[in-house]
Amino acid sequence: MQARNLVFAGLIALGLLVLSINFALAPRAWRSFEIILPEEVSVYPGEEVEVKGGILNTGMWWLHWFNLSLSGLPADFEYKIEPSYWEHLRILREWNPEKGVYRVPENFSIKIKVPENATGLYLVNVTGQEFMSWKKVSNSSFFILRILPLTNFTITNISIPEEVTEFEPFNISMRVNNLGPTFGRINISVELPADWNISEKFVSLALNASQSKELVFTITPTNTSGEIKIRAEYPYKKEIIKIEKVGPYLIPSPAAPGIIEFPEVKIPTGFQAFVESVKALPNYVKGIIIVLIVIIVYNILSIVQARRKRKKPEEMKKKKGEAEV
Fold first, then answer.
1. Which of 47, 40, 106, 118 is nearest to 76 (CA)?
2. What are phi and psi of 301, to 5 degrees?
3. Is 153-246 in the same CATH topology as 20-147?
4. CATH 2.60.40.10 holds for 20-147
5. The model's pTM
6. What is the pLDDT of residues 225-265, one digit of tens each?
7. Is the pLDDT of residue 317 over 70?
8. Coil, helix or strand for 188?
9. Omega within 30 of 0 (cis) for the link into 263
10. What is the gyration radius of the CA atoms in the chain, in angstroms?
C-alpha cells in the first residue's frame, strides 16, 4: 500500500515537472487572443472599402460569447463587421512541412462606406471581448483609414484665331485650373495637321490646390488646312480622366501682296470740273442735253418777242392823243 502511494506521488511529481518545463519553454495564458489588421487602408470619397482582418486565439482554451466592436469613425461613416459575434472562438490549427503545426486566425471583414465630402486620416480602433469567463478578456488593435484626395482640373479661356496666314506664326492660349482640394498633375498635348510646327507639343503641369496657370503655344501653319485639338489627361480615383477641346477648322490664307503705288490724279475744280464731267458723259446723253438747251433758248426768245408786240399798239394810242390836243 505504501509502495503504491509512493508510485502515485512520483507520477504526480513527474507531471508537475513536465508542466513546469512546458510553461518555461512556451508560456501561454489560459485565455488570450490577438486581432490582426492591416496598418493602413486607402479609399476615395464616396467609395466603399473592405478591410480584411482576423482573430488569433493564442490561449489554452476556447473563448466563448466573443464580440467585435469598432470606434474612431465619424457618425456619417457607415460600416458593418461580418461576422461580429462568435459563440465559440476556437483554436484553429494547420500544418505544412516548413512550419509544422501552427495556429491560424478566425477571419472577419469590415465594410466602410465613405461619404462624398470626406477628407483626412482616421485612426480606427477594433476591440474584441469574450463575455463568458469571469475575467471577460479583451484586446484591441487599430488601422489608419486614409481618405485619398480627388483631383479636378478644368481648361478654360481657350483662345484660337479663326483666321491664319500661311507660314505666319500665331498663338493659342488657355488656362488650366486645379479645382481639387490637393496637389495634382495634368498632362496637356496639342494635335495639329502633320506638316504644321508648334513650339511645344506636350506639357506636364503640377498645380497645387486652387492654383491655375496660363499656357501659350506658338504655331506656324503651312498651306494645308486642318483642326487644332487640345487633349488633357489626369488621374481620378482608379481611372484616367480625358478632356478634349476641338478648335475651328482653319484654312490658311495666302500672304498679303506688296503695296502698289498709283500715280497721283489731279481733280479739277470750278468750270473746268463741269466741262470735264460733261466730256465724260455718253454721246446720247450729250445729244439730249443739246436738244433741251435748244428748246429752252427757243422758248425764251418766243416770250421776249411776244412782249414786244404788245407794247407797240399802246405807244400808237398815246401819240394820237397828244396830236388832238
1. 118
2. -65, -40
3. yes
4. yes
5. 0.54
6. 888 888 888 887 777 888 888 877 777 777 655 444 444 44
7. no
8. strand
9. no
10. 54
User: Minimal CA–CA distance to 86: which of 139, 128, 30?
Assistant: 128
- Give the length of the chain: 325
Please tell me whether residue 92 adopts helix, strand or coil conformation: strand
* Nearest alpha-carbon partner for 195 in 162, 231, 163, 225: 225
The string over 172-181, giving b where at least 16 C-beta atoms fall within 10 Å of a residue's C-beta and e elsewhere, is bebebbbebe
Q: Which three cell numbers stand for residue 223?
A: 498651306
What kind of fold does domain 153-246 have according to CATH?
A: Immunoglobulin-like (2.60.40)
Q: Which are the contacts of 175, defined by CB distance < 8 A and separation ≥ 6?
A: 155, 156, 157, 212, 213, 214, 215
Which cell goes with 310?
Answer: 404788245
Q: What are phi and psi of 118, to 5 degrees?
A: -75, 145
For residue 45, what is its C-alpha cell?
A: 470619397
CA 189 remoteness from chain centre: 14
Strands (E) located in the chain: 33-36, 40-43, 48-57, 63-71, 78-82, 85-89, 92-96, 100-104, 106-113, 120-130, 138-147, 153-159, 170-178, 184-191, 197-198, 202-207, 212-220, 229-236, 239-246
Q: In whole angstroms, what is the distance from residue 214 CA to residue 176 CA?
A: 6
* Percentage helix, strand, coil for the chain under 3-state DSSP, each rounded to 5: 25, 40, 35
Q: How many CB atoms lie within 10 A of CB 220?
A: 16
CA dihedral over 162, 167, 169, 175, signed as positive or negative: positive
Q: Which three cell numbers stand for residue 132?
A: 463568458
Determine the 3-state secondary structure of 289 from DSSP. helix
Q: Residue 82's closest CA among 55, 109, 112, 50?
A: 109
pLDDT, tens digit (0-9, with 9 covering 90-100), for 62-83: 999 999 999 999 999 999 999 9
The answer to whether 237 and 147 are in contact (CB under 8 A) is no
The residue extents of the domains of the chain are: 20-147, 153-246
Q: Beta-carbon neighbour count of residue 52 at 10 Å? A: 12
| 276 — pLDDT class (breaks 50, 70, 90) | low
Give yes or no for a contact between 192 and 225, defined as CB atoms under 8 angstroms apart: no
